[in-house]
Design goal:
Organism: Sphingobium fuliginis (strain ATCC 27551)
CATH architecture of the largest domain: Up-down Bundle
Number of helices: 5
Distance between the termini: 51 Å
Number of strands: 0
Largest sheet: none
Helix content: over 70%
Protein name: Periplasmic heavy metal sensor
Order of helices and strands: HHHHH
CATH class of the largest domain: Mainly Alpha
Radius of gyration: 24 Å
Shape: flat
Structural class: mainly alpha
Length: 146
């Protein structure tokens, strides 16, 4: 009888520890959701878009995804060239400086493309929807990274 109580106590303690681990993991370990997910969630869940708006946004998002993938591939290629330059020069020489400048151009292009995407999405919204959208964009741009 005493062994059963100990076994039951052990099972309960183990279960409680497992639950505590899940709670701690969800609160402290789960990464913060990317800002773009929050913005798209706001668009599709909170702004009560009509079917024409959904359709236009879908087209905008597909076009942006294609362009973003191309720019991200360019960034990866720039990083590879930077790595080659660092390996060749073992310091901040002319090849490294050129590779860094090229990488910055690609980053700037991606940032501009992202902003154009945001403004294209905004243009689809009705005036009663733009305030919430603008607030979400400002929040995203001013949020502290963790």
């Amino acid at each position: 009888m005493r062994d059963r109580r100990r076994l039951l106590l052990l099972v309960l303690v183990t279960f409680a520890a497992a639950i505590a681990g899940v709670v701690i993991g969800r609160v402290y370990v789960v990464p913060v959701r990317p800002v773009e997910n929050e913005l798209h969630e706001l668009l599709h869940r909170d702004l009560k878009l009509n079917s024409a708006q959904h359709s236009r946004l879908e087209t905008i998002e597909k076009n942006y995804a294609i362009r973003r993938q191309a720019l991200e591939a360019e960034l990866r290629a720039d990083n590879a060239r930077l790595a080659e330059a660092i390996e060749a020069e073992h310091g901040y020489g002319p090849q490294v400086a050129t590779a860094v400048d090229r990488s910055h151009q690609a980053m700037g292009a991606l940032q501009k493309e992202t902003l154009e995407h945001i403004f294209a999405m905004r243009a689809v919204l009705r005036p009663d929807q733009t305030d919430k959208f603008d607030d979400a964009v400002v929040k995203a741009l001013t949020a502290k990274s963790e």
